[in-house]
């Protein structure tokens, strides 16, 4: 009997720790079939299925597409919502909302920078650590704000940056709780910042 119990404990322990940690982008058909449009008021830009030790859930990135033209689609508001399918409904794990700021020169677009977003288990604990990146652009075509939001154990850790030609209107701030993140995640984000500075010609610094 004891051997059987030990076997069961070993089996379930192996099952738990062998849970696949993966993510993939959902197709338009999959988004429709899962009725993910019900979790947001905006058109869905992209959606992902995430799977880790905590289960299977969806991350929805939505932009309101306020102005649509042949040249561009401009958004005034965005939402990032992480949900679990719960008995035919959706249970929200966390959410991000943002919108254009009243500023001169005027901000005309806010969008998800999915090139720099991440849905990986960065620190190797068996749970995915989503990183959501988005920016705003002004009417004269320059990037103004950049936000990098790391979600660790459903808590948000935010970097807020404002780009500006003048030192006194440029800023770069990490949340006070930033150092509570595991070192592997902080290192990953620091490397991401270096990459964004190089590829987008951003300063991402104070003054």
Strand content: 35-45%
Range of helix content? 10-25%
Q: Biggest β-sheet: count, sense, barrel?
A: 5 strands, antiparallel
Task: Give the overall silhouette.
Answer: globular
- Helix count equals 3
Distance between the termini: 69 Å
Structural class: alpha+beta
Walk me through the structure.
This protein has 207 residues and is of the alpha+beta class. It has three helices and twelve strands, in the order αβαβββββββββββα. The model is unreliable at 3-17 (pLDDT under 50).
What's a quick, concise take on this entry?
With 207 residues, this protein is of the alpha+beta class. The protein has helices at 2-17, 28-33, 183-200; strands at residues 22-25, 44-52, 55-63, 67-68, 73-74, 77-86, 89-99, 107-112, 131-138, 143-152, 155-162, 171-174. The strands form three sheets. It has a five-stranded antiparallel beta sheet, with no helix packed on it. The protein has a five-stranded antiparallel beta sheet with strand order 8-9-10-11-12, with no helix packed on it.
């Amino acid at each position: 009997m004891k051997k059987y119990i030990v076997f069961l404990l070993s089996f379930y322990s192996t099952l738990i720790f062998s849970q696949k940690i993966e993510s993939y982008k959902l197709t338009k058909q999959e988004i429709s079939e899962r009725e993910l449009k019900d979790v947001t008021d905006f058109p869905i830009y992209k959606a992902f299925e995430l799977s880790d030790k905590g289960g299977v859930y969806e991350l929805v990135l939505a932009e309101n597409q306020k102005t649509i033209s042949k040249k561009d689609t401009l958004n005034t508001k965005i939402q990032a919502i992480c949900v679990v399918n719960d008995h035919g409904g959706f249970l929200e794990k966390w959410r991000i909302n943002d919108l254009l700021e009243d500023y001169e020169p005027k901000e005309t677009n806010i969008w998800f920078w999915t090139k720099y977003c991440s849905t990986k288990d960065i620190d190797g604990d068996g749970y995915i650590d989503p990183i959501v990146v988005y920016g705003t652009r002004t009417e004269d075509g320059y990037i103004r704000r950049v936000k990098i939001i790391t979600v660790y154990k459903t808590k948000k850790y935010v970097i807020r940056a404002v780009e500006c030609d003048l030192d006194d209107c440029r800023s770069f701030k990490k949340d006070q709780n930033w150092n509570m993140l595991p070192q592997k995640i902080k290192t990953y984000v620091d490397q991401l910042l270096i990459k964004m500075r190089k590829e987008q010609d951003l300063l991402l610094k104070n003054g």
